Recover the amino acids of this structure.
């Protein structure tokens, strides 16, 4: 949601594949240590004291978009993605019934540490052990793993309480029982409505620790004492005894400060212990208003674990309390990238700081990202609804409110992108107020009716639209190569009908094939259209329906190839000369040909020739009584807008003006009747106004161009391309700060131009000397396009503003090295 997936992967790597990186946060290394303990068959050795709830893994996958790493059990992860340690533990899990008690306990501890709790209490230990069995230290550790795993999934449920009872009601003098009794006391103090039993439990844990002091090394005794003190500190905090909590903490911190770990594994245990002590010291300093102690604890915490989201949040909060909004903004943005816990909250706080600094549009972008990270949280919903209404954007405010409502039958409906563009996902109901959100559904309605409108909408969404939409939304289950591959739970009745048409495609008549092909293209299956409709030479075609079908195929082939080699629509050109070609089809192809030659071949001669062909066809159509006044007006308006490329190419300003005057006049006069014709009129007028603005800008008539862009926004304020026009106009006038807002609107209204919007906004913000905002936008551009070298270079320039300068420079160096290796390999 807020950082490239590689960063989330590196910071939390042990949860993904069992290995670690230089950037791995301390807490995630619990799984690395547990795997080593398993290998060395030392289940009673000290492990990390903290564990993560089951939701943590889900959030990691959702925010990183690394859905291939989704797992509830070790075996769910494909071997090619797993580290050697993960594969060994997965093998152990597959044969867990054959393991002895030592290995079962070691496996259970690793499953807890790797945030795979269900695999503990459902597989490794599906029923509680008796108090008698739990007198054994290894068995007690196994039972403790079951209790912790249950809490991770269910909280303070009856099953969790039952799992703690064999350890708490008859505790033996073992390390496992000390930690279990103290842990249960902590859970009651922290989460229960009634914590009356917590003090006695913590005292009992201290007594047990004294009983076994002689059996422990100095290191073990100090760490266990520190952990117990942390539990007692938490209990004191609940009762607002912050002075007592600080005094208790001070003694144990001093003892831990002089501690040395006997080996590298215990060094990890010590590191985690110090981090937890710093965390409590910092929270207590804040409660007591001790700013000096707060600064000292922050410095120590950041030095211990610079990748930890909580310490980054605490640092940002400290800046915000001090009124240092720019530093707070940078801190919250940094924290949001290190999630997943706190991502949405960090973004909301960042948005608040941005507003304090006067960056209103940037703040709204942050509100949207917060909502997408946590769409069911009332705080993110309310913040975004408020931001929309402050901008006078009631349609999106209403959409956000609907998207925040959970639909158990359609969990994906909580997704902002799905609500906006459901038609492109599964032919659902798009709720975006934009012009182009429902195009696939419109195509489906005509296919269902068996109708072919002579006048249709003009917009052809880029081939990458569906892929970008799915990637940006995170709804990767919709990423299928064929409609039939979409899981049943994600389908609508319309999608099922489409699948039936595709399955029987060869049996459909030519008109039906054309209509189904249009639907498939509109939802992003251009390749499938080309597969279903084999190419045929124009001379082999016989009927008007066949000619229309193969012109459509040629159009799809051309549009799908945009950005790569040009797929010239030669079949369409031949169809226009075919004796059976209807006048309207010849007209459509001629207009298409003018645009093609203007953009691709730059041949004025060919463009002129096709303009003449189109003009002759238009004359016939306008004289044909079979067409309605609306259809004739629309055809003529579109004709003059498209063929105006000819005077544009020869730079004849007067001729171009006459063409566009006529196109605009007709666009405004079209006598539309009914909802569909009103949609076509509005779409055509918006396109015409947009073309006129380009005409004005090309000839230096910026003021007129700006007025036309403003009108285009009135016709559709949700079209990203128009906001690009606004931004580019502002840039031409030397206003990069204002232009950045236009690009930010482009980014948040994606996915057509999201990456471009972020990258362009970043460049503008950098030029406007706003490095914190620029740094975040560069990183967002890389989240969408990790290979964007210009964004990587920009990030390297301003990375220090967000606290990631070294990482940005490393990223750029690695990307440049990768690019050079590819060039060398292909040269």
């Amino acid at each position: 949601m807020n950082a490239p997936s590689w960063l989330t992967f590196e910071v939390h790597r042990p949860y993904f594949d069992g290995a670690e990186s230089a950037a791995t946060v301390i807490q995630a290394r619990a799984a690395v240590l547990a795997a080593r303990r398993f290998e060395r068959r030392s289940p009673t050795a000290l492990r990390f004291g903290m564990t993560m709830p089951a939701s943590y893994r889900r959030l990691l996958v959702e925010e990183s978009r690394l859905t291939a790493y989704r797992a509830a059990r070790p075996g769910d992860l494909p071997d090619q993605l797993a580290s050697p340690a993960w594969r060994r533990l997965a093998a152990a899990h597959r044969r867990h019934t054959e393991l002895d008690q030592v290995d079962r306990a070691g496996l259970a501890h690793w499953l807890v540490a790797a945030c795979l709790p269900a695999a503990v209490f459902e597989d490794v230990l599906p029923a509680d052990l008796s108090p008698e069995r739990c007198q054994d230290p290894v068995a007690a550790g196994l039972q403790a793993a079951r209790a912790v795993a249950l809490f991770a999934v269910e909280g303070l449920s009856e099953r969790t309480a039952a799992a703690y009872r064999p350890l708490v009601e008859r505790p033996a003098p073992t390390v496992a029982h000390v930690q279990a009794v103290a842990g249960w006391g902590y859970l009651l103090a922290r989460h229960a409505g009634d914590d009356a039993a917590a003090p006695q439990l913590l005292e009992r844990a201290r007594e047990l620790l004294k009983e076994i002091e002689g059996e422990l090394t100095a290191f073990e005794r100090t760490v266990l004492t520190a952990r117990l003190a942390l539990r007692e500190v938490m209990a004191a905090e609940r009762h607002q005894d912050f002075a007592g909590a600080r005094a208790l903490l001070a003694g144990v911190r001093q003892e831990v400060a002089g501690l040395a770990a006997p080996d590298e594994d215990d060094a990890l245990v010590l590191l985690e212990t110090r981090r937890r002590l710093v965390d409590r010291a910092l929270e207590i300093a804040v409660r007591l208003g001790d700013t000096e102690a707060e600064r000292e604890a922050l410095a120590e915490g950041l030095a211990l674990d610079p990748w930890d989201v909580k310490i980054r949040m605490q640092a940002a909060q400290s800046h915000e309390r001090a009124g240092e909004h720019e530093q707070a903004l940078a801190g919250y943005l940094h924290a949001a990238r290190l999630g997943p816990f706190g991502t949405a909250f960090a973004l909301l706080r960042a948005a608040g700081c941005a507003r304090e600094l006067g960056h209103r549009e940037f703040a709204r972008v942050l509100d949207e990202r917060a909502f997408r990270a946590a769409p069911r949280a009332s705080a993110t919903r309310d913040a975004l609804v408020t931001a929309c209404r402050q901008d006078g954007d009631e349609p999106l405010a209403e959409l956000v409110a609907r998207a925040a409502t959970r639909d158990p039958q359609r969990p994906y409906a909580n997704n902002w992108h799905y609500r906006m563009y459901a038609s492109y996902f599964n032919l659902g109901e798009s709720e975006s107020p934009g012009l182009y959100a429902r195009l696939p559904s419109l195509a489906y309605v005509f296919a269902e009716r068996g109708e072919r409108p002579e006048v249709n909408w003009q917009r052809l969404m880029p081939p990458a639209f569906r892929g970008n939409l799915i990637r940006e939304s995170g709804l990767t289950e919709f990423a299928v190569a064929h409609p039939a591959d979409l899981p049943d739970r994600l389908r609508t009745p319309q999608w099922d009908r489409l699948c039936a048409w595709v399955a029987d495609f060869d049996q459909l008549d030519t008109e039906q094939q054309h209509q189904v092909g249009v639907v498939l293209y509109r939802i992003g299956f251009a390749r499938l259209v080309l597969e279903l409709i084999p190419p045929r030479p124009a001379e082999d075609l016989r009927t008007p329906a066949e000619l229309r079908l193969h012109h459509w195929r040629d159009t799809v082939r051309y549009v799908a190839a945009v950005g790569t080699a040009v797929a010239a629509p030669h079949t369409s050109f031949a169809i226009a000369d075919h004796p059976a070609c209807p006048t309207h089809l010849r007209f459509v192809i001629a207009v298409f040909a003018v645009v093609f030659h203007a953009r691709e071949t730059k041949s004025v001669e060919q463009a002129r020739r096709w303009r003449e062909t189109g003009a002759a066809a238009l004359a016939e159509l306008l004289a044909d009584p079979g067409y309605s006044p609306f259809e004739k007006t629309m055809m003529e308006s579109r004709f003059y807008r498209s063929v105006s490329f000819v005077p544009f190419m020869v730079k004849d300003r007067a001729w171009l003006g006459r063409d566009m005057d006529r196109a605009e006049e007709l666009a405004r006069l079209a006598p539309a009747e009914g909802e569909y014709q009103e949609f076509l009129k509005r779409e055509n007028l918006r396109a015409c106004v947009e073309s006129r603005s380009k005409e004005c800008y090309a000839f230096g008539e910026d003021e007129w161009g700006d007025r036309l862009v403003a009108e285009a926004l009135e016709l559709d304020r949700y079209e990203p391309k128009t906001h690009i026009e606004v931004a580019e106009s502002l840039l031409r006038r030397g206003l990069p700060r204002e232009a950045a807002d236009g690009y930010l609107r482009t980014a948040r209204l994606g996915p057509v131009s999201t990456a471009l919007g972020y990258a362009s906004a970043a460049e503008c913000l950098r030029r406007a000397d706003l490095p914190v905002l620029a740094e975040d936008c560069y990183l967002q551009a890389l989240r969408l396009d990790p290979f964007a070298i210009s964004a990587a270079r920009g990030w390297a320039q301003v990375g220090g503003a967000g606290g990631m300068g070294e990482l940005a420079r490393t990223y750029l160096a690695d990307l440049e090295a990768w690019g050079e290796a590819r060039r060398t390999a292909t040269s």
